Amino acid sequence: MPKVDVYNINGQKVGDMELSDDIFAVKVNKVAMHSAVVNALANARQGTQSTKTRSEVRGGGKKPWRQKGTGRARHGSTRSAQWVGGGVALGPKPRSYSYTLPKKVKRLALKSALTSKVLDNNIIVLDDLKLEAIKTKEMVNVLNNLKVDSTALIVLPGVDRNVVLSARNIEGVKTATTSSINTYDILRYNKFIVTKEAVSRIEEVYA
Fold first, then answer.
1. Closest CA to 78 of 91, 90, 67, 62
2. For the structural domain made of 3-46+101-206, what CATH number should be given?
3. pLDDT value of residue 22
4. β-bridge pairing 152-156 and 173-177
5. What pLDDT does 46 receive?
6. Could you tell me whether strands 123-126 and 191-195 are parallel, antiparallel, or unpaired per DSSP bridges?
7. Planar angle of CA 157, 159, 161, nearest 5 degrees
8. DSSP-derived pairing of the beta strands 123-126 and 3-7
9. What is the DSSP letter of 53?
């Protein structure tokens, strides 16, 4: 079992914790992680882009010239795709880009992402994370105490309003709960900050 140090919000080591091999020490599968990231980005696309076809463009009801005898190419409408002001051939239309990954692939990708954080020493376990008031300055101090100088994903066992609102305005910092973490966010943020209780819940849910 991988063992990691446990810190308090002052950056002081207060103990250590053994992590589950089934979650934090699996064989890293890069293909699964790539599939999960592509899926997350695809599901986030709005798909609202739209172009008008020749039937939707205003005008073009009259045949521009007679069919034969002019020496020019035959045309039936000035709103065909080859005309200036005409419709777009095979252009994008509103659609959904979302699709579903198999549950086993999603679970394997998540475990691989968590394992990669442990292997790279980018996981920080806290004994607890509580703030008495909503103050961005306090959250900045916590991050400074933990020597976090890059992007960070803070994972809590449940929604803590003080922590969420205190971290909301800090650039490069995001909060999440154990039920909302995903492979994309874990890989996107450099540091993975998690409380002991959140680790236990992750091991219970994804074991």
1. 62
2. 3.40.1370.10
3. 93
4. parallel
5. 94
6. parallel
7. 135
8. parallel
9. -
Share of the chain above pLDDT 90, in %: 95
Q: Enumerate long-range contacts of 174-178, CB under 8 Å, 24 or more apart.
A: 178/202, 178/205
pLDDT digits (tens, 9 = 90+) for 161-179: 999 999 999 999 999 999 9
DSSP states of 17-52: EEPPHHHHSSPP-HHHHHHHHHHHHHHH--------
Reduce the DSSP state of residue 144 to 3 states and report it. helix
Mean pLDDT within 36-48: 96
Cα gap 121→173, rounded to integer Å: 18
Write out the two tokens for 171: 């650039």
3-state DSSP call for residue 117? helix
Domain boundaries, the chain: 3-46+101-206, 51-91
pTM: 0.84
**Residue 11 — left, alpha, or beta (φ > 0 → left; ψ -120 to 50 → alpha)?**
left
| 148 contact partners, CB below 8 Å, separation of at least 6 | 124, 191, 193
Helix axes of 30-44 and 103-119: crossing angle, nearest 10 degrees: 110
